[in-house]
C-alpha cells in the first residue's frame, strides 16, 4: 500500500458511497487508476466490503454495554462462533487481559440487555464468567 491507497481507504471510510469519479478527484488520480486501485484493494482483502453506519439510538437501540467474558482455555473459537450469532452482539474482540473477550452489546432497553448477558452469553458453552459495563454515552471518531 502506498500513500494513494491509504488516501482512498481514508476517503471511503468517511463516505463509502462516494462515486469513483469523486474519489479520483479527491485523491488526485484518474478514474481508470481509481477503478484499478479499488479492484486491487478488494482483491487483496484490504477493503472487505462497504457498509452503512447507523445511529443506534434512532434505530431504537437505547442501551449498550461492554461485556467482558472469561472462557475455558482453548474454547475461544467455539465461543466466538456462538457470540457472533447472538442478537445485539455488535463486536467481539479477543484480548490479552484478566478476561479473554470483550463484547459490545446493543439492546432496546435494560431488560433486553439483561437477557442477552444473563441468559444468552452466560449460557454459551465455554463461558466461565462475565462482567458488564453499562455505557452512558459514546462518541464516534
TrEMBL record:
The keyword Transcription applies. The keyword Amino-acid biosynthesis does not apply. Keywords: DNA-binding, Transcription, Transcription regulation. Signal peptide: none annotated. Residues 1-62 form the HTH asnC-type domain. This is Lrp/AsnC family transcriptional regulator. It comes from Ornithinimicrobium kibberense.
Amino acid at each position: 500500500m502506498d500513500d494513494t491507497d491509504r488516501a482512498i481507504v481514508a476517503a471511503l471510510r468517511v463516505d463509502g458511497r462516494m462515486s469513483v469519479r469523486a474519489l479520483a478527484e479527491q485523491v488526485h488520480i484518474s478514474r481508470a487508476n481509481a477503478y484499478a486501485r479499488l479492484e486491487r484493494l478488494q482483491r487483496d482483502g484490504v477493503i472487505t466490503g462497504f457498509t452503512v453506519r447507523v445511529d443506534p439510538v434512532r434505530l431504537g437501540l437505547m442501551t449498550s454495554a461492554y461485556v467482558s467474558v472469561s472462557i475455558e482455555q482453548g474454547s475461544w473459537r467455539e465461543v466466538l462462533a456462538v457470540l457472533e450469532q447472538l442478537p445485539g452482539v455488535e463486536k467481539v474482540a479477543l484480548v490479552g487481559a484478566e478476561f479473554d473477550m470483550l463484547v459490545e452489546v446493543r439492546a432496546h432497553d435494560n431488560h433486553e440487555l439483561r437477557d442477552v448477558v444473563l441468559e444468552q452469553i452466560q449460557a454459551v458453552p465455554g463461558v466461565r464468567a462475565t462482567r458488564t459495563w453499562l455505557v452512558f454515552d459514546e462518541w464516534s471518531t
